[in-house]
Amino acid sequence: MNELAEKGRRRIEWIRSRMRLLADTREEFSKTLPFAGLRIGMSLHLEPKTAVLLETLASGGAELVATGNHGSTQDDVVAYLRTQGMTIFGSRDDSLDDHHRNLESVLAAKPQILLDNGADLAAGVAASGAEGIIGGTEETTSGGLRLRAELAGKVPFPVIVINDSILKAIGENRHAVGQSVVESFMRITNLMVPGRRFVVVGYGWCGSGVAHYLRALGGKVAVVESDELAAFRAAMDGFRVGAIEELANWAEVIITATGQPNVVGAEIFPLLESGTVLANCGHFPWEIDVASLRSSTSETTQLDDAIERLDFADGRHLILIADGRMMNLAGREPKGNSLESMDLGFLLQALSLERVATAADSLPAGAQPVPDEINRKIARRMLQSMGASK
Amino acid sequence: MNELAEKGRRRIEWIRSRMRLLADTREEFSKTLPFAGLRIGMSLHLEPKTAVLLETLASGGAELVATGNHGSTQDDVVAYLRTQGMTIFGSRDDSLDDHHRNLESVLAAKPQILLDNGADLAAGVAASGAEGIIGGTEETTSGGLRLRAELAGKVPFPVIVINDSILKAIGENRHAVGQSVVESFMRITNLMVPGRRFVVVGYGWCGSGVAHYLRALGGKVAVVESDELAAFRAAMDGFRVGAIEELANWAEVIITATGQPNVVGAEIFPLLESGTVLANCGHFPWEIDVASLRSSTSETTQLDDAIERLDFADGRHLILIADGRMMNLAGREPKGNSLESMDLGFLLQALSLERVATAADSLPAGAQPVPDEINRKIARRMLQSMGASK
Amino acid sequence: MNELAEKGRRRIEWIRSRMRLLADTREEFSKTLPFAGLRIGMSLHLEPKTAVLLETLASGGAELVATGNHGSTQDDVVAYLRTQGMTIFGSRDDSLDDHHRNLESVLAAKPQILLDNGADLAAGVAASGAEGIIGGTEETTSGGLRLRAELAGKVPFPVIVINDSILKAIGENRHAVGQSVVESFMRITNLMVPGRRFVVVGYGWCGSGVAHYLRALGGKVAVVESDELAAFRAAMDGFRVGAIEELANWAEVIITATGQPNVVGAEIFPLLESGTVLANCGHFPWEIDVASLRSSTSETTQLDDAIERLDFADGRHLILIADGRMMNLAGREPKGNSLESMDLGFLLQALSLERVATAADSLPAGAQPVPDEINRKIARRMLQSMGASK
Amino acid sequence: MNELAEKGRRRIEWIRSRMRLLADTREEFSKTLPFAGLRIGMSLHLEPKTAVLLETLASGGAELVATGNHGSTQDDVVAYLRTQGMTIFGSRDDSLDDHHRNLESVLAAKPQILLDNGADLAAGVAASGAEGIIGGTEETTSGGLRLRAELAGKVPFPVIVINDSILKAIGENRHAVGQSVVESFMRITNLMVPGRRFVVVGYGWCGSGVAHYLRALGGKVAVVESDELAAFRAAMDGFRVGAIEELANWAEVIITATGQPNVVGAEIFPLLESGTVLANCGHFPWEIDVASLRSSTSETTQLDDAIERLDFADGRHLILIADGRMMNLAGREPKGNSLESMDLGFLLQALSLERVATAADSLPAGAQPVPDEINRKIARRMLQSMGASK
Fold it and tell me: How much of chain B exceeds pLDDT 70, in percent?
């Protein structure tokens, strides 16, 4: 194994040892071989955690042909995976054109099953045909939306949408994101949490998790939520709940978790106290209107790895974390969501792909939720793996 | 006003002063008179809190004809309401026959609108005809089920089912019941909560509220939940989660909140440590198998108002709270759910009845949920009434 | 046993069964008989919980001669204790003169040991001589202060001051009072706690307990504390901390726990929103300046048992709980601190009295803390009794 | 400014901007010049946060002569500080001999005031004389102990011991360490906290903080504590409390916070489940008996930066974090305690040194606590700086 692959191998070791659901599944798959004789075409982030998913599928007899998402591929991991007999296209520095060619290469390998991300492979299928494909999975909510809108009717096989599972909402959105946001706030800024004034914008699964975890650590937390029913829930959970305009000059830190664009926009910046910290944990880097912010400030200074200071002409300044991108993937050495939450999410992938491999006929064509009995089986395994009864 | 009515009047005073949503609605209704010329026939608990609802409907121009639920009517409240020009049938000591006659009397008064409880009035309508009735509301979930099953198609007007509203789930089931269960545990038993070992059976809206509030007060709390997805949620919320057989001899207190019969049954009693406290907060007094418990114990002693000691032949004893009935309505001077949570629930009634009175034509016949915009209007009012933004 | 005594007997039953530390001590004392041949003269509240302490001392061979505190004696308990061969002076309706005669009667019985409350017996001893007395205990902090000030040097035997024990601070002041204050707030007012705005005045053992328990139940809690170091502690614990003038018009409920007079005084009332609830949990009924409040309001209405409404000429009104007396002993059927916390406090009494009975010579004269090894022995027993390791 | 100094300068920028108490003090000192004409000799960690303290003292007119602790000196910070006119001896790679020479060099510069760390300078003074020294401060508890034991009577000037201040116990030991331990656990291991089983050994200021913060994040936390009174406190705080032998095989993670050696020793390792994580947050790397652990395991693998796997012959393995050193300073890019908690601690230094500079005559010789009025002044400033009343 060359040095790059060796580096990849080592980085995966701790992670693999703690993804216990997948470990059990590898053992199981190595006996049942659900993917024997099947080729899985994949488009997904290629980093140490997903590598463990790929190993798991391979243990079930699958031949794997994969490419990464554009810009997130980690070359050492790819090098390692190639030593395991997988066909991987692409590298970190790929251009967007390269990336499209990689997607085409995956489909050109004639997979029977697809593991898709953002419906990139499905879009290729819709354009060029689905010959030989029996079904697949889609990781993301936005891919699921695409399958149900622009690609509706154009994908003649079942696609199980992983991210809609209630297990992901609980295990990942509420708890793992909640945990990783408080961790990343502390890691990036080194600021004190107890007694600090946070405004969390959005009280869905992610926002309510973030609000609870910040308060649990002693933060004073107020919530902004435009949906009355969610706002009422936040109020009954004991949070101060108000409009962002009311809370702006009380805030020391604002964290967005709405999924919507420009929730902290041009009309808010003038209301903020100097030194207020702005951060986002939503998937898209659009919740804070960074473009507007930059255009209204006179000077910017990079103070630390993900900490930028933007000065207004009036003498005030704001602190912007990670340019408005997901804070829990920002800063030096970010680790993202906890290993167990990823393990959970990937088991949803593995068992859904197993279902497709072994019983695609029993599933309708098109986008569909994870079958209820798979959710329940995974919940039981997770309870056991956690030692919940101890 | 005679003495009984005066007693009723005084008991209502504090309560009315703190049911602020209804207070505002009385003012509003006294101007808009949505019920002018309409008679509302009602079947509901007649106690101080519901009295404030009746006053509110009367302020909107309604003529009220009501009877209580069997066995829960409070005579002083009835006496007071009669002084306000309402027609009330029944008294605390009514036999079941009396109660049925009262229901018939309500329908005989030819109401245009019904406020029903357990579908008792709806059943009468199904039997004897709905002439002149334009619609109504049903307070309970069980009444809603009856309307959708045995009475399906037999009620030719719209009935809005109040208890299905998400606002009730949040405001009442989760938070108000959670609060009143910890209050009643402390009030009835005078036992210490911090450090005590509680097993909460059920992790729905009520059970999860009870578990959270007990833990918040320093209790050690384990959860029993047969639904894997809810059990996973409990585990992620940090609770120990196991089968009741595993947790039985660890428990000092068991509280049931499942809605199901015999969740603590004959096979569990032998596993419990001597002195274990058994209590229930579910609606029906069937979650603890009290009959089986009594038949297997040799002696019972009433130790305090809602505290009974049952001795086994093996020398162990158990403590049974309130004979397995709802603990938050048991013991001396119980007050039940908080005034604000009742205010919320009654505003759902008032605005749903207003909708029926003013726009019954726009609603389909049969059981149906509270219209979304009514939920949202009430959530906004509740947020304002709570001063949520302060 | 006559009816009154029988009533007393029954009221003690549940309580005795849950005061497990004393139960073990009764068994132990009945073998070791530390008080054999000794008479203990006592002045203390005579109610069901203290009755269990008296039984415990009697089991150790003591002859008991007791009187109650003025105004708190419960006649059924006294009647029961008399059937157990104890000499009890006094009744609920005693005048102050009667009370003083009762104290004299206790001393006239020539006790060898004193269990004192507020140094009432010690004051008698200082006046009339300590012949035959080998030592005693003092329950209260204020009695301890008296012994160290006006009575310093006048009490020629050791007096162990119970209330100064760190175990009481933790078990009673912080946790039991915290629990009983939230219980009594809910029981008396029936108001919702989650989302409600509380100001807790004082952040000592009691105040910090009250603040934590209210917040744990979902309340928004701010703290007023004049000592900077305690105020800093509150701020680090995540509470809003400010001057009462700043917080007055934010408060929905104010609870005093300072031990100081007039902390909510005439200058505060004009700042409060109409409807604000005022309550106290400090020992003395002087923290809210009730006299000033009454003189500045035009009308008062008793709304419920411990709920009074006071109207100002400007149209605002305030709600006063229990006339400013300890709220956790107010309202219908108050139970006070938890049984286990009382059990703990009384074991401090029992073992301190045992020390006096068996080793008075080893103790210096005058007021002194509970010996460290007694504190530690009780802590170990309490941990075992709680099943702390489960 | 050369590149190294420029790197140091930039690393200090964010930190300085958030150490607001020191910022205000710099402004104040630049007017009052308490150190005008005085030379301060210093021995302390030289890293970005302490650099801000040095700047603050310099702003008060002090001439600074400093050396770092052995092994922790950061060369870029030193380079920057030298550009500011300070005399700094030493570098990261210094041998122990070099370090001793540096200490001598500081004393040889004839400082009037000492800022000491571990009593290293005081020991030099005791050996070689204190001519011209008017007083100083000592940062650490262990330095304070040394001054009161082996150096007692040998230091003829006042030394204020900073770490004994109650403000440090609250702000740093309880809250900042609690926060940084949960942060470092998440950052280093990437493991899920909610539902995980932690055993915290020690329930002093640090241990109780760690236990609370882990539980706040959803962890199941048990406490081991040999002092009965602290153990009782933990039990009343709702924690499971037991002996480490009882809890060992329940634990998934053990974190030591006792200050004592070998609290997790050879007799415990056989009791642990395979995969248990061992970590320490106490000052000394001796709480886990790492030597014994290594001698009883057959193979070790470095899995990630601060994660080591040690395999036993019986097939089990343990995970050791940071070789048993302080976990909150371990792993990639550790940041240590929060900026605000360091700001607080350094203000104690700054104002204590000011007191020495301006009123050494009013202080007794030898080790002594921070004057009460300085503690109170800082508490007030911290409350204001936090915006505690908002």
Answer: 100
